[in-house]
Amino acid sequence: MVDLVAGAIADPVRRQILEMLRAGPLPAGVIADRFAITRPAISRHLRVLRESGLVRDETVGRQRVYALDPTALDELKAWLAELTMPAAVWEQRLDALETEVYRTRRERRADRETNPDRKTGSDG
Prior knowledge:
Layout lengths: L1 H8 L2 H11 L3 E2 H6 L5 H13 L3 E6 L2 E6 L5 H41 L10
């Protein structure tokens, strides 16, 4: 399913259609009127979006109305989150190490100020 969704959103026209549908359901004719490409081309884009699960359609009278179905993005979002998580984990660990380095320096400085004659391992 991730491949279908990723393939569907790879096209800029299909992304524009999804953005339009974010505001609410629209008839196919209204969607087509907002593009400078042919209605059959828009129909093919809508079919790809429907087959990927990103939109659902419903016949209302003589019109086919399309609505966004963002649940199809859940699997892709989970995959992207896993892909980017290692960087976030390392960032958190490096921040913790930086905090520990600053704390140790502060403690050593305070120790030298209270015991100026005391030799430490780093003093030789």
